[in-house]
Each structure stands twice: as structure tokens, then as C-alpha cells.
Amino acid sequence: MKELKIFGIVAAFTLLLYWGVEPFAHSKMHKHVEGHDFVYNGTADIEEAEAKGKQEVAEAKKKFWADVEKISKLKGDVAAGEAAFATCLGCHTGQPINMGGVIPPKLDHAGALYDKKYLIALIKDPAMASNVDHKYKDTSTHPMGSIKMMMGGDQQIADVVAYIKAKKAAEVTPKEAYEEACGRCHAMRYMKWTQLGETPKFKYEKDALAYKIKVLDEQDAVKKYMGKLPPDLSIIIRARSEHFLETFVENPQSQLPGTSMPRVGLTKEGYEKVKAYLEESGDPSKPKREALGPWVLLFFFIFTILAYLWKKSVWKGHH
Amino acid sequence: MAHFDENAKPFSQKWLDERLAVSTLKRVLSTEYWIPKNINFLWAMGMVLAATFGLLLVSGIMLLMYYKPDVNLAFDSVNYTIMSEVGYGWLWRHIHGVGASVVFLIIYIHMFVGIYYGSYKRGRELIWLSGMLLFVTFSAEAFSGYMLPWGQMSYWAGMVITNLFSGGSLEAYGLVEWIRGDYVPGDAFLTRFFMLHVLLLPLVIIGLIVLHFGTLRIPHVNNQDGEEFDFEEAAELYKAGKVKESKVIPFNPVFLSKDVFVMGIYFIFFFYLVFYHFEFAMDPVNFDPADGLKTPPHIYPEWYFLWSYEILRPFSKDLGLIAFAIAQVIFFMLPFLDKSPNVAPASRRGLFKYWFWIMLVDMIILTFMGKLPPQGIWNTIGLVAALLFFALWIALPIITKLEKKL
Question: Per CATH, which fold does B33-299 belong to?
Fold first, then answer.
């Protein structure tokens, strides 16, 4: 009994120590960021502008997201949307061709990956939707900027989004989700993924080097456009907390104010897919840990019981 | 030459006894190595430490086979090759990572058990001193190992810790550069810390473990009451079959059976961490590759160094360095600063009872403050806790001198 009391004291101090250096210290080191449950309605953006005292920007954002809300109420016509969607395919070819700094994303699974309101917002004003309008304030324009001239008003936006949501929403694999949502800016060297896509196998070193040069050129273009080369995401799953990743993807400004990383606009399901791929790369042992763990623990439970019985028999007559 | 029996079969008991004295060795080291009966599970921490060191050694050898001590390759050799390409590499790495952290938890428990029961006193000073040497060498081993994955915190912790050798405002940078082999942590730094981690320091640790065990053999292990008795007399009683009356038990198999039981419980805890909570031992910041151009927002050491880091931090540059240096060695002085004649648990002693718990709580507070960002109220608490730490050491000889003989 006395030993149990001593054990209790040791365990209590150990837990106190753990609490102080882990949860408590981390709660003080990282500011808390509210999640928005993957709802895109501009609340965070407006608050952000207001917190910085930029009343004008806040007003513009309020108006913008109110318009988005209005369009989201319109009934979209899928057939009409398909015709308008043809204009998108001029750039969103699925080919790794850099346009104005980045490669436009493939839209094959856009309906499954991205939020409806976000898509509306993006077509209406890409810089506002992705919350990087600060970057295009003065001189440059968003690479997708001319879309405003191509889309013939709110109804057409609603049509296109209806089409994407209906026809581009096939089941998406974690890899495809990563490719479309992140893979054009972020490399993932543990998955042999570069900004140009998965690295092919080459028979001759000459070809491998030529490809490497192409990748370097693409990286230079991205670097120029983003200000710095976006980080490799191979083990980002281990380097950032779950909460950080989730809120960062929802609104990059919330964790890194002023960053040129655009908001991606993923739905919750889309984010789960991306996360699954990040986990595959950065934490590949997870399924193996979960499979082996119970057996190892079971072994030591039995070991401990046997050790206890041994101790009891050896100590017989000693007290 | 001793006398050898011509008829002894090779490798038979007799044959081995004549050449190796195996029976004597077994007797001296295990079956007639006498342990007081009156000790609780906290005395099993030594064996728990030995087992953890064994796990660290074996897992370390596995990792060593695939690790690349090169600033361009180190990070990926740890995080990709070992984690994804080597069979069970992830298991070895998690055992090594968790072991490196947990070993310090057990060392601290082991240390504070020694302090609580007065096991460093009268006759056992060398046990304490060799143990403290082990603690310091383990610290160096842990630090050099922390550098190896060459992540962000490895790099910056290396920068901060080696900067300590600049001699405060003397700015004697020659020494720092000599240690690093460069102006900043680089390839020379990594390779020499690699050598220290996998060769020199483990050798020193193994030697010190032998010394630590050796210092224990003559004064024998202390007991729960600090009671002093004649081990040989008690042993005779035990050998005569009066196991109940005797105050001692043989290490093997009697105390060993308790050690093994405690180790069983410990391994459940250990492998629970390895499989389900390994990240507690691994700072996420270290999963960003080292970047000499980007400082992490907060630089802090691993949890087991936080208390001494916090003794460095709240003071000015020079004062901080001096305080830090004193904090590193002051525990060595414990047997000589404690002037009390009593070898007894803290609960039965005079003011030392309070000294022990205040010291423990103060070090926990220092640990908390060492990790918190150095701002506002945290700074003040850290400063007070650091001053209290020194006040306690100054008070120790005085309050123990006042203690009456029990």
C-alpha cells in the first residue's frame, strides 16, 4: 500500500511536469486561431481587415462576400454552365504550363474538392476569394484576373459552379487531391513530387538532368511569383499540429499574416483527402504502428503478470 | 599457474571455474550480493535505467547503419530512409527518440530518490559523484544526439548552446569557432558531434556505469529508513535459512524478481509511448530542415534541460553564464553541503524535509518557465525561481547543521 502511495506521488509530479512543458507551454507559444469549419463566407477576412484598422478594405470585403452570398442563392443551369466552362479550359488544361507565375490547376475534381461559395468567389474575384488581395493592390494582377471579362455576370458564374459541382465531382484519391490543391507550388520530395508533377523514370542521365533543369526553371517562376519557394510538404504533417494545418489551409493569413499563399478553398472532405496524402508521405508507419502496438503491449502485460507471480513466489517467507 | 584438472570436460562447470572463476563471479555479483530487504520499488530505477540504456544502445546501432552524417543528407536519412525504407526503421527510431527522453525522467526520479532518502551521505559520496558524472555525460550524449537529425531546432539549439562558450562579454569567439570548426554550425560541427554521440560519449558512459556499480559494492545500497547494519552478519543469518529475520536478501533471484516486475510495468509505459505517443518526445520544429537564415520563433532545449536553461535566461549575459555554470555543478556538492549527521528519509529530518520539496517544486517551476516565451510575468517568475534555487543551496549547510542527531 505504501508503495502505491509513493507511486501516486511520482506519477502526479510526472504528469504535472508533462502538462507544463507540453499543453500549457504550447498554448502560450502559439496564438489560438479559430477554425471556421470550412465555411467560406468572408467572416475571417473582414475581421482581419477590421483588426488592422483598414476600414476601406473591410467594406470592400463585406460587399464582395455579400455578392457571393447572393450568387450562391441563384439556381445554376448545368447545361449552360458546361458551355461557359469551355472558357476555363483555355488555361486549366491539366498540362504543366506556367501562366503568369503558376501552373493553373487541373479542374477534374474541382467539384469534389472545393467549396461552392469559394468557387463562386474565385470566379468573381480570385484575389479576394483566396484572401491575397493585398498582394495585387498596386501593380500586378492575379494571373486569373481577366476572368472577370470572360464571365457574363452573376448567373453565368452560378451556372459554371453548378456544372463543376455536378460534373467534376468524381471520387478523388488522396494523391489527386494533393496534386490539384497543392502540387503546383509545393514539392514533396519523399513522394518524388515536384512542381511539374511526379518525376518520371529516365533511362539516360542526360534526360534526368534535362528534366531537373525544367523543374528548376519552374521553381524559379514560382519563387518569383510567390516571393519565396513554397516549402516542401514531405513531412509537414509532423512539423505542424493538426489544428495549425487545418486553420492554415482554411485561411493562410490566420497563421502567417501577409503570406502570399492563397486560400485553397477546400471542403472538409477535400481537406481530409489532402491530409491523407500528407500522412502517407510524412507518417508512413502509422498503419504499422497501429498493427504492431497492441501485440507488443499485450506481450508486456503478460510479461508483467508472470514477473509478478515470480516475485510473489520468490519472496515467500521473506516478510 | 594454478592447478588444472586434466579430466575436466571443456566448458564444463569445473573447467570454466578453473579458468574464469564463474562460480565466484556469480556469487559475488548476484547470489551473494546482499541487498537490504527494506527498500521500495524506487530502488529498481537503477535497473530500469540500465535497461533503457540497453534499448538506446541497440536501437542506436540500428540507426547508425543508415544515418548519414552530412548536412545535405542527414535530415532525409533520418526522416525518409530510416522511416520509410528500412524495415522497422520507424520502430528503432521511435524507441531511440522516446528512450532518450524517458531516460531523463528516470534519471531525475533516481536522483531525487537519492536525495530524499539521503543515499548520497556518509560512505556513499562516491556513488553520488559517479552518478552525477553519469548525469552530465548523459546530458552531453543527449545534446549531441539531438543535433544529428539536422532539423531547425537541432541547428538553432546547437547555435545557442555553443554560443555559451563565447565567455559572455569577453566575447572570446575563438573557442566557439574551435568547437564548431566553422563560424556557424556546419558539416564539421555535425560530424564531430556524430563521433561524440556514437563513439566517445557512449564509451565514457559505459565506463561510468561500471564505476557507478563499483562504488555501490562496498557501502551497499541504502534503505528506506537509512538504517545502518552489519551486512555480513545479516547475510549469515540469511544463509542459515532465517530469511524472515534477516535484514538482507540476495540480489539474485530475490531482488531481481522485484526489479523485473517493475521493469515490466515500465515497459508497458515505454512502449505505449513508442506506439501511441512518440511525438511527445520529438519537437515538431525539428521536422523542418535546418535553415541558417530563418530563426524559429521560440528556441528552447528539450524538457530535461529547461530548468538549467531558465537559470541562464533571466539574468544579464555574464551573471547568467556564471549562474548557469554553478547550476551545472552544484549537485556534485550535495554530500559536502549537507552537514547533518543523519542518514534518513527527508520526512524524518528537520528543515531538510521542507528543503527537499521546495527544491523539487522550484525545479519544476524553472522547467515550466524555461519553455514559456520570455515575456511579462513569466520573466519575473523565472527570476524568482532562479534566485530561490541559489538561496536553497546557500541555506542547505545552515539548516542541516541545525539538525539534531536522530
Answer: Cytochrome Bc1 Complex; Chain C (1.20.810)
